Each structure stands twice: as structure tokens, then as C-alpha cells.
Amino acid sequence: MAQQKEGSAVLNIARLTFMEAGKKKIFFVTIILTLAFLLLYGLGLHFTDKEMAEINAVLGAQLAVQQIVGNQLLGLGLYLSSFMLSLLALMVSVGSIASEVESGLLHAIVSKPIRRRDIVLGKFLGYGLMLTAYSLVLFIMLLLLNWIFNDIALTLLTPANFFYGVFIFVLQPLVLLGLALVFSTSFRTMAAGIITFAFYGLSIVGGFMEQIGALINKTALINTGIVTSLVMPSDALFRKLISVLTNSEANPLSSLTGPMGVGIPPSNAMIVYACLYLVACVGLAVSKFAKKDL
Predict the structure, then answer these.
(1) 94 DSSP assignment
(2) Nearest residue to 125 via CA among 25, 6, 221, 244
(3) What pTM does this model have?
(4) Cβ atoms 141, 36 nearer than 8 A
(5) pLDDT at position 277, please?
(6) pLDDT at residue 232 above 80?
(7) For residues 251-268, average pLDDT
């Protein structure tokens, strides 16, 4: 009976959190920006497709060039999509605990027979469901545009890799959500947002350093990128996503796509690590909030 009440509390908080997140202005702004991004990205793919057709008509089939350009465009779309997802995860969740502590709202909640861990788990579940639904729609729309105008980038995409890619794409904002909850239970809203974004920025810089290190064969840069991936694995997830969708093991040209490429594709162990990282973040957030003096 106690377990049923506990589960009911988590689900109720998750439902209320999901509804609250859907009403936030940042969510509507993100939807508008996403639609604008998809429109501009689709136009870019369309004009690039026409340009490549004209080049092929004059010079003949340039399959290598098309493959490189196609992978670059796919990587750019996924990178910008991942960035928007991460910002959404950061903006909607970083104040989930901190802002309610500051406003005194949580004082009324914790005074009721609700465990503190149920509050954290409910908020994670609510925001997680919202981010998952948003991620799925965005990912499908992005691949659909590439399938229409940039199908060469998806030539080697298998059904198994597609579903694996969906999992990785959804995992990206969830990892940031878990980290944001840790800092939201530890600091004030603004401080939590700055620290979380700093971790995200660190992963981006580390990811680029690792790719540059692979390009010029500098072990120090590669190791630096690996360390930052362990601190915050979001960029490593993006690189793994690119390698999965372009099937880099069967496509050597996928490593020649510049900053959006994968000179050194992360292993599947990094995905396992990211999942454990997420679980650890949620567990740490639960532990910190349980001990927090309200």
C-alpha cells in the first residue's frame, strides 16, 4: 500500500510538472524557433540539392563530394537540433527545485505526507517525458527532410541504427536534465543555470579538441576530449549519433566531414556510461534534496 501511494505521488507530480512545462513561455518560444529552424534547414537542403544536381550535370557524378557535403549537412542539422534540445532542457528544469525553494512553494509541498525523493523523481519524469516527446518529433522531422533532399547521407542507415540513433538523440537532453536537477537542488536558480551551461560548454570544447587531436594526431588533445566527455558526455553522445546514422564503420568518408565529423567515433561503452551518468545524477539530486535545509 505504501509503495502504491509513493508511486501515485511520483506520477501526480510528474503529470503536474509535464503540464507546467507545457505552459511555460520558453516552451512555446522553442517550438516557434524549431519550426523556423526546420523551414530554413529544409530550404538549405533543397538549394544544396539543386546545386549538386547542376554540378553533376556539368562535371558528371561527384559521389565523393556529394557524400561529404551530405554528411556535413546532416551533422549540422543534428548539431543545431541537439543544441536547441539542450537549451530547452536547461531552461525548463534548472529552476525546477531552486526556484520553488526560493519562492517558498516547496514548503507547502514538503509539509504534506510526500517524500522528498518523490518530488525529485516526479519532476524528472515530467520533464523527461516532455523532452522525450519533443526529441522524437524533432528527430523524425530532421531525418525526413534529409531523406527528401539529402538521401545520400542516409544511404547506409539501417533500421537498427535508426532506432539506436533515436535512443541516443533522446538521451542527450535527459543527461543534461539530470545534471540540471543536481545543481538545482544545490544552488540558487541563476547559479544552477550558469554552472550547468558551463558543463555543457565544456563538453562542446572538449569534443572539438578531441576531433582536432584525431585530425593532427595529437594524443594530448584526444585525452583532454575524453576526460571532458567523462565529466559531461553530451558532445560524445552527439558524435556517437553521427557515427551511427552515417554508419561510419562502413563509410570511411564520414570521418572527412570537418567539425561535424567523427574522426574517433565513441564506443558503445560511452552510451552505457551516459546512462549510468544519468542514473547517478538523479540519485545525487534525490540525496541532496533529502538533506537540504528548507
Answers:
(1) T
(2) 6
(3) 0.89
(4) no
(5) 96
(6) yes
(7) 65
C-alpha cell at 244: 551511427
Identify which of 247, 172, 182, 234 has the alpha carbon closest to the alpha carbon of residue 205: 234
Distance CA 56, CA 192 (A): 52
Q: What is the pLDDT at residue 254?
A: 54
Higher pLDDT, 250 or 173: 173
Q: How far apart are CA 107 and CA 117, in angstroms?
A: 15
Distance in angstroms (rounded) separating the CA atoms of residues 139 and 164: 12
Q: Is the pLDDT of residue 60 over 80?
A: no
Task: Give the Cα separation of 100 and 109 in Å (integer).
Answer: 10
Q: What is the separation of C-alpha 55 from the centre of its chain, rounded to a whole number of angstroms?
A: 35
Q: In 3D, which of 231, 196, 224 has the Cα closest to residue 208? A: 224
Q: What's the rounded Cα separation, in Å, for the pair 254 and 263?
A: 8
Q: Is 277 exposed, middle or buried (0-12, 13-18, 19+ CB in 10 A)?
A: buried
**Full DSSP string of 11-55:** HHHHHHHHHHHHHSHHHHHHHHHHHHHHHHHHHHHHHHHHHHHHH
User: Cβ(288)–Cβ(269) under 8 Å?
Assistant: no
Q: For residue 255, what is the DSSP state?
A: G
Task: Please compute the mean of the pLDDT values over residues 47-74 and round it to a whole number.
Answer: 77
The answer to whether 237 and 168 are in contact (CB under 8 A) is yes
**Cβ 86 vs Cβ 171: under 8 Å:** no
